[in-house]
Amino acid sequence: MQTKIYTCGAKSPIVGTDLVQKQLRLAREYQNALVACERRLRDVEKRVVASRVPVECARYDAALAALQTVEQVARNARASGEAPKRGLAPNTSDIEVAKHVFHEAQRALWIAEKKVRTNLEVKTEIANLWIIAAAARRALRSEAVKNGLYWGTYLLVEAAMDAAAKKTRKEHSLPHFRDRPSQSAFWIGGRVGVQLQGGLPVPDALTCTDTRLRIEVLDDAEWFRRRGKGNLGNDGKSRPVRQPGSSRSKTGRRNMRFGAGYQRAIAHFRVGSNGRLPIFAEIPILLDRPLPVDGVIKWAWIFAREIGPRIEWSVQLTVVLPDVVANDAPAERVALNLGWRRLPNGEIRVGYVVGNDGYEEEIRVPSDVATRIEHADSIVSIIDRSRDEMIARLCAFAEMEKASEGFCRAVAHAPKWRGRERLLALRSRWGIVPVGEEDELVRALDKWILRDRHLWFWAADERTAIMRRRLQAYREVAARLATRYGEVIITDMIISDFAEQPEAAEGARSEGREQRRQRMIAAPAELRKSVKEAFTSRGRGVCEKKAVDYTRTCDGCGVVASKSDESFRISVRVTCGTCGQVRDQDASHCGFLLASAGMMREDEEAFAATESRVESRQEEAVGGRWQKKRSQKGM
Description:
Helix content: 40-55%
Structural class: alpha+beta
Radius of gyration: 29 Å
Mean pLDDT: 77
Low-confidence stretches: 85-89, 181-186, 231-260, 501-510, 599-635
Largest sheet: 7 strands, antiparallel
Strand order of the largest sheet: 2-6-7-1-5-4-3
Number of strands: 15
Strand content: 15-25%
C-alpha cells in the first residue's frame, strides 16, 4: 500500500467560519501548552542527570562563559569600527581556541550524560518524571477538550508535538512555541483535522452519507451560488455566466490548464457535535484531478497559512492506495545528481540526469524564476525603506516641543522597530487628532499604511506564483523521466545542512550568502521530492544511495581531485590532472551512481575499490564548516 496526500485549493469557509477560527486558536494554545510541558520535563531531566556529573557540568559552564566573552569582544569590535564588517574578527585565534574548548567540554558532557542515563536509579527517576509528564499532558488535553477543541484537531497537534520532541532531543535543542501571526483581528494559521478511523472509501465520501467528512461535487453555477457570488456584477446588475472553455473565461483557462478532471466541490468537515448530531464546516474546494475511486481516506484537514497579508486556505486528504504494479516498466535506469550552481550565462542548474541508455539532460531552473524572485525581493526592500522613512519622520516630530508627552512616550523606542505591527498599533491608539502638523503626520501614516499593504500583497503574490511555476516545471521533468525509465538512483544528502550560516569565528554572516541564495532559488529538495513521487506513483523503483561526493572523482582513471582545486568551483567542466580527460563533474557523479547499481561498469571490484578510495579521501578532508557541524550533531 502507498500513501499520498492530495492538496486541493480552497476558499474561506462559507459555513462554520467562527468554529474553524476557534479550533485554530485552541489548537495553537494547546500546542504551546504542550511545548511548555515538554520544556519543563527537559529542565527537570537535565537537573537530575547534571547532579550525577558535576565536574563535566562545571567544565561545560566555564567553557560556554569563556566562548561568549570572546565572541562579545568580537561583536563589540565590529560595532565600534575597530574590525572590518567583512572577513574574520581580529581575535579569531582566541575564538577558535574557545570554541575548541567548548566543543570538547560539550562532547564530554554528552558522553557522561549518556553513561549516567544507563544507571538503574537514574532510569527509574526519569521514568517517574515521564509518568508525571504524561499525566500533565492528559490534564492539558482534558482542559483543551473542555474548552471546545475537537478530537481530530488535537490529535494533529499531539502528532506534530511528538515529532518535534523527538527531533529536538536528537539535536540537543528545545521545541519552539508558535508565534503570533501578523493578523491582529484573530489568530489564524494551522490545521483543523478529522481522523477517519478504519478509513473512508472515496466513493462513500463523494456520496455525502458519512457523518465525519463529505465531498459534494457541484457544477460551476451552483458552486458560485453557494459561495454567495451568484451571477451579479460589481454594479449589482445581472450578468450572463460565461461557459467554461470560452476565450474570455478565467474558468475556461483554468479548465484547459488542469484538464478534463477539474471539478468544483464543497468539503464538509465535522468540527463539533450537538449531542450525537454532527456540526459541519463547509469550505469550497477545487479538485484539479479526480480522487482515486480505489483509495481510502485516512485523514483530512483544513490548512490555513499566511501569505503576506492574506490567508491561503487549502484542504489536504491523506489517501491510502493499493500498490501499483507496472508490468510494462522499462528496464533502463537513470541517475539524478542534485548539484545547484550558476552557469556562465546566468541561469542556475539544479540537477543533472544520466541514463544507462546514453541519455543525458541538464535540469535548469526556469529562466524567469530568479528574475521574478529578485523582483519580489526588491519590493520587500522598498517596503523596508518606506517603513524606516516613516519611523524617522515620527522620531523627528517627537523631538519637537509641540509633540505631546503621550506621543513621545509611544515612539520612545521607535528606532528599534523592525516590523509594521508597531506602526499599525500606534495608529489604532491615536484617537482624536488635533488639527495642525500632528494631523498631517497622521495623514502621512494612513497613506503609508495603504501603500505598505499594497506592496505587501504584490510581493507575496508574486513570490507564491513563481514558486508554483517552479514546482510545476519540476513535476513535468519528473513525469518525463518516470515515463522513460523504470528506476531512478538518487542520493540521500541532507540539503538543509547547506543552509547554515557561518559563526562569528568563521567570518561575517554575508559569507556564502550567494551560494545559499542559489540553493533557495533552485530548491533541489523540491526536485528530488517530485522525482520520487513521479516514480513511486507509476510503480517504478526508487534507489537511494549513500551521499558521497563523486564530483571530484575522475570516471576515467578514478583519481580523486584535491579539495583545494578551485576549478571545480569555477567551472562545471573540469580537466583531470592525471589522465587529462575533460568531463562534466555532475555527469561524472551520475555515472558513478549508475555504476554503483551495476549498470555501467562490468568490473564491479574495480568500482568498489574506487568507491572506497573516494570515501576514505573524503573522511580525511572533513574539516569544512558544514562537515564539522554535521559531525558535531551526530554526537
